[in-house]
Amino acid sequence: MAEKVLMKGNEAFAEAVIRGGVRFYFGYPITPQSEIPEFMSRELPKRGGKFLQAESELGAVNMAYGCGAAGGNAFISSSSPGIALMQEGMSFLCSAEVPLTILNASRGGPGIGSIQPGQADYFQVTRGGGNGDYRIPVFAPASIQEAIDILYDAPALADEWRNPVMILVDGLMGQMMEPVVLPEPKTPVTSADIPKLKPWAISGSEKGQRSVVKSLRLQPEVLEQHVEKLFEKYNRMEQELQKVECDSIEDAEVVFVAFGTMARLAREAMEILQSQGIKAGLIRPISLWPFPYYAFDALTDKTKVVISTELSMGQMIQDVQLGVKGRFPVKLIHRTGGMLPTSIEIVDKTKKILEEVR
Amino acid sequence: MKPVFEYTKGMTDAITSYCPGCTHGVAHRLIMETLDEMGLLGKAIGVAPIGCSVVAHQFMNVDMCESAHGRSPAIASGIRRVHPDKVVFTYQGDGDLASIGMGEIMHAAARGEKFSTFFINNCIYGMTGGQMAPTTLIGQRSTTSVDGRTREQAGMPLKMCEILSTLDGPSYIERVALDSPAHIRAAKKAVRKAIEYQLAGKGFTFVEFLSICPTNWGLTPPKAMEWLRENMIPYYPLGVYKDEEAQDNGDK
Amino acid sequence: MPKKQFKVVFNRERCKGCELCKSFCPKKLIEMDTQVNARGYCPAMMTDQTQCIGCQSCALVCPDGAIAIYEEE
Fold first, then answer.
1. For chain B, how are helix, strand and coil distributed in percent, rounded to 5?
2. Domain spans in chain A, listed from the N-terminal domain onward
3. Residues of B in contact with A96 (CB under 8 A)
């Protein structure tokens, strides 16, 4: 059993993804994740990897596309406005079925916004952002350890599905320190392994077949077939990749739904309410796409209200409503712009909501 | 009978989708003939652009990927990191490279990325139907400059060989033309030099091909060749803009 | 020494009738057929093989890989 070490979020994320097999990083500085490119520039060359600072986020995602198309395990990281630029590439990667691990440290928006934690990019990351019908699995850990575990598995997951995979955190998680256990490093794929492991990758036709990585399909019937094939894959992802943590929901009168940093605050609020004799529970989606709708089926008639708690004006609430299917009223407790509510603030607002619905 | 000229096996059997007389076919062939002659078809990885040649991978008989508009140099930089022992090239048009992809090409060149870029300059956006390109000449008509491009309205056309040769990263830059058999022979030599320099581990190499777009210029292919000679070559002079080897020798 | 004899072979179906070969042939030996090929183009053809000097101009400018040249042995 490995030892516990105290690590800062951003460095732990970078270390985890290297241990997960990533050997290529492409990035462009943006707060609050710039320690990741800094860490990668120091660490990757020591471990036989390559670091390249891109001219822009557009450059970074396309370097990663080239790297992934060529069979390499690539990693990119950015934050909200940078992710917006990268989404051009993400659409291409999905269509061309090129694997990639992406970390998004989301911040306050819209526009250049603020650098404080935000969740107003929920639509951006779960509803596309780039053009066309595509899906990217998005995981939102609520602790550094959980982020490490997800990032460690992400390169293999991206390879398995031949699709990008995103991990959504925020600056608060990037900056805080927690005791963590780091997993054993995986053996990375070398260039010589690629023709055998990924015959579809562009590694030169001397491997015995010519490979073409593409997304253009000018004939509509051909494109339709391709998208339908992609959706067979996405449908399987929906079955296999849903992840959720539920706490005290069976007899809960009020159920919070929250992810990431907000889930930590909602959990505190839940515990305060419980200590005051109010039955509160928490549904914490870990996968935002695919959203764990099924978790809401476990709610009983004892539930009076479901509260989506978000660091946005209310985006995830639409998925919460889909999960609740009209069985209970759905309310919103939120702050935005990089502001965080205190747990007491959530408790007070919850009590007001309970008065309304009782 | 002894073959004197045959279609290279560097090209697939597919008939290209390009218009009659379009010199994309000539540029494709020169690159693929050179790779074939150097025994590199199995080691080559190409990046196709956005534009008419988005489908270049249907015709160039090597491993290839498509790119988003203008991003090929970034993509090639990524491929290079994974396969340092392969031959990597991008094939890009003037809108792709000199407009939307200006950031990517400048920085790849500045980094001295070890791949070759083959730049097709025909002074127009072909696939979208003849709009003004960053290289459209003053006075040249396009569907977004119907009375001819003016300096006042659109500025001056960009000279990519000259711009890139201000950087320290590139090792070889040459502008060639595809308007005559003699120039086409010279163009092939430039392609070979670019690939040789890449193999030797020198920096970024760049060959600009002055090309024709008979369809969007509204000229027959033979007339388009004349137009290239009379209008493009005076503004875009042919020649070697950078040659690291020649410079090294000159210093000695 | 006898004069070298060349044979220029046009691939009718690859030809798009652009006339570049015709315009660059120094001996003016290439004409366009009046019969269209399957894709609707009037392909190029040689009028007099015996006059060909084997300069390859036609093949060099051909964008469509429609021309092959052989030397008679």
1. 40, 20, 35
2. 4-240, 244-357
3. 65-66
Task: Tally the domains of chain B.
Answer: 1
Hey, which CATH number is domain A244-357, 3.40.50.920, 3.30.450.20, 2.60.40.10, 3.10.310.10? 3.40.50.920
Least CB–CB distance from B185: residue in C14, C60, C69 = C60
Give the closest of C14, C19, C67 to B15, CB-based: C14
Please, what sign has the CA dihedral across residues B33, B35, B41, B47?
Answer: negative
Kindly report the average pLDDT of chain A as a whole number.
97
- How many CB pairs (< 8 A) connect A and B? 130
B12 occurs within a structural domain: no
Average pLDDT over residues A177-188: 97
Contacts of residue A103, defined as CB under 8 A and 6 or more positions apart, other chains included, come to: A13, A17, A33, A36, A75, A76, A77, A78, A151, A166, A167, A169
Contact C62 B25 (CB under 8 A): yes
Verify B-C touch: 3 or more CB pairs within 8 A: yes
Residue B163 domain-assigned (yes or no): yes
CATH of the domain at B136: 3.40.50.970
| pLDDT of residue C3 exceeding 90 | no
Task: Judge whether A90 is closer than 8 Å to chain B, CB to CB.
Answer: no
- Chain C (3-62) residues lying within 8 Å, Cβ to Cβ, of chain B: 6-7, 13-14, 16-20, 22-24, 39, 41, 54-57, 59-62
Q: What CATH code would you report for A4-240? A: 3.40.50.970
Adjacent-strand bridge partners of A27? A53
Confirm if B49 and B96 have CB atoms less than 8 A apart. Answer: yes
Is the CB of B85 less than 8 angstroms away from the CB of A88? no
* Global pTM value: 0.96
Tens of pLDDT, residue by residue, chain B (252 residues): 899 999 999 999 999 999 999 999 999 999 999 999 999 999 999 999 999 999 999 999 999 999 999 999 999 999 999 999 999 999 999 999 999 999 999 999 999 999 999 999 999 999 999 999 999 999 999 999 999 999 999 999 999 999 999 999 999 999 999 999 999 999 999 999 999 999 999 999 999 999 999 999 999 999 999 999 999 999 999 999 999 988 776 544
The CATH T-level fold of domain C6-71 is Alpha-Beta Plaits (3.30.70)
Tell me whether residue B19 is in a domain: no
Give how far B39 is from chain A: nearest CA, Å.
11
CB-neighbour burial class of residue A175 (10 A; exposed 0-12, middle 13-18, buried 19+): middle
> Which of A55, A202, A214 shows the shortest C-beta gap to B104?
A55
B16: in domain = no
Query: Contact B180/C19, CB-based, under 8 Å?
Result: no
Give tens-digit pLDDT for A193-231: 999 999 999 999 999 999 999 999 999 999 999 999 999
Q: DSSP string of A155-184? A: HHHHHHHTSEEEEEEEHHHHH-EEEEEPPP
**Helix (H), strand (E), coil (C) string for C30-42:** EEECCCCCCCCCC
Chain A residues touching residue B115 (CB < 8 angstroms)? none
The minimum CA-CA distance between B4 and chain C, rounded to whole Å, is: 5
Yes or no, beta carbons of B57 and A52 under 8 Å apart? no
